[in-house]
Specification:
Elements lengths: L4 H10 L7 H14 L2 H15 L2 E2 L6 E2 L5 H5 L4 E5 L2 H10 L5 E4 L18 H6 L5 E4 L5 H13 L6 E4 L15 H9 L2 E2 L2
Parallel strand pairs: 3-4, 3-5, 5-6
Antiparallel strand pairs: 1-2, 6-7
Helix pairs in contact: 1-2, 5-8
The structure holds zinc ion.
Zinc ion binds next to helix 4.
Length: 195
């Protein structure tokens, strides 16, 4: 016996989440139908409607209601911190230690997985870097994060801005978004110039 079309539709939508395979999507869909009441479903529909109006900042890639986010609107663009993911921005903002703007790559270079520099948000960084004094590279301390940092350094070698790489008090393979505020603060303070 097959699932009803309604359930298949929900499974298909849930499968679009990164990291959710068909089996998990199936479990979530069945859970929604069997465990949620209509109020739960209504609030989920409303939450989805709300996020539908959000967009990416045209400058840094942050999530925003307007074309340009509050951070880009209100802060000086001398200092740009390059990060992998929107979640990293929230981790750093929560630590309340940084007063510059960001640039969200939406990934890292991973040649093995077929992700080349053209596949991530790098081109606009090179445009933005022309007006910046310092570029702080805060990609994760993974092999891919390092390769990406080196690539950015190479591409910006003739620019006027200085380039620094944040220090890490966490092991290689660690992730920025799971790092506590104090470690993040130390990582930023201990950044070293790489150009
Ligand atoms: Zn922005």
């Amino acid at each position: 016996m097959k699932y009803l079309d309604e359930i298949n539709g929900l499974i298909e939508s849930l499968s679009k989440y990164q990291g959710i395979g068909p089996k998990t999507a199936e479990r979530l869909a069945i859970n929604t139908v069997t465990k949620w009441d209509s109020n739960d479903i209504d609030s989920f529909i409303n939450a989805l409607k709300e996020v539908k109006n959000l967009k990416r900042c045209k400058c840094c890639g942050n999530i925003t209601k307007n074309d340009i986010c509050d951070i880009c609107n209100n802060r000086c663009h001398d200092k740009i911190m390059v990060i992998e993911d929107v979640k990293d921005l929230f981790a750093i903002e929560k630590a309340d230690m940084y007063d510059g703007v960001y640039h969200i790559l939406d990934g890292v270079i991973n040649y093995q997985a077929g992700i080349t520099p053209e596949d991530i948000n790098l081109e606009s960084l090179f445009l933005r870097a022309k007006d910046a004094k310092e570029i702080i590279i805060a990609t994760n301390p993974s092999v891919e994060g390092e390769i990406t940092a080196q690539y950015i350094k190479e591409m910006l070698k003739d620019y006027d801005c200085s380039i620094s790489r944040i220090a890490y008090g966490l092991p290689v393979g660690g992730q920025l978004e799971y790092t506590d505020s104090l470690t993040l603060l130390k990582a930023l303070e201990g950044r070293r110039n790489i150009k």
